Amino acid sequence: MLELDPRDELICLRSTEPLAECGGMVLPAIAQASIFRKETMEELHRDLARENTASVYSRGTNPTVRVLESTLAELERGEMCKCFASGMGAIGATLLGLLKAGDHVLFINDIYGPTLELARRLEEFGVFHDQVFAKDIDTIGGAMRDQTRIVFMESPGSTLFHLLDIGGVATLARERGALSVIDNTVATPLLQKPIERGVDLVIHSCSKYIGGHSDAVGGALVGSAELVERVFYNAYMLMGAIMPPFEAFLFLRGLMTLPTRIRRHHEDALAIAKHLQGHAAVARVYHPQLGDGEQPLPSVWRGHSGLFSFELAEGGFAHAVQVANRLRLFGKAVSWGGAESLVITGHKSDPLAIADARPRVPAGLLRLSIGFEGVDALIEDLDRALA
Ligand SMILES: *Cc1c(COP(=O)(O)O)cnc(C)c1O
Q1: Whole-prediction pTM value?
Q2: Fewest Cβ atoms nearer than 10 Å: which of 147, 194, 200, 255?
């Protein structure tokens, strides 16, 4: 049974309080406005000086988005949050807002493909990076350079689901004068709290579990007011990848059921992963709670959500495609985190093919996002496709 922090359940439900004056609406009003008028010029000038939290112009702050921002900050135990048009919007603004030519970024383990593509693009502007495949803090430390300003991690990653000692990485980064950043999308704000382990900045793609219904794209950055403000003034306002108020409304609606959904995703995915682990056609299941001793559960991590991968015993990529095509209940689509189950093959398919990833994603890999069709029906579908 997945134990969540009871405080989080309340935060997810009472995210609407700040706009409660809207006639007792359960969800906040959608503030569909580009500008916000002030009574006096003095008031306008005052708010222009704190545009990161005051509603002046919706490229800076919008009241509906602000409710989501304060809710996500509270869930991640951070001081401040800004929401973005997408997870990549948050990642891009964070890197551009905090780095300058000559700086170095160290990526650890599995990293979302487009994040690495952006890092390669940044080389054109004199920002360099390396990727290290290790859990051991000394090895990670050995890969840092004098110019390393950001240590960027995902734990669990979204393909092979490696877990890192995120507190250890945060301490290492701090000792060496770098910031630690985690893409916490897979764990959601419910399953681990990186800021409590000393991580400086937490990034989410809201497009996955936070939204939860495959109908909205968004992102978020949470951390100290000082760091989030730096990203706000150096990149957020200037790049303009902002979250529209309707999307913020959808994500607040999604948050209301996030704890319930995560419990169900967790339970069903674990049952299906265990079934596949004992299946003759399956070589290996990549689920962080089915570790073979390699992936001890850190005390900071409450358990896994509904996303995992498995590798076929034989046949490689062509067979993986065939198995995916035989599945009836799993939609063939990118992304994950909705009510419907999804499948994607790893190797040679863009979203999972990490060009410079070592070790490479196994050829016969399928990644499943477990939805709410029911364990029995999904296992029956998988067994038939694997027969
Ligand atoms: C989807 C995803 C992103 C990018 O988020 P978008 O909202 O699609 O831009 C970043 N990191 C991880 C781990 C993701 O799964």
Answers
A1: 0.95
A2: 147
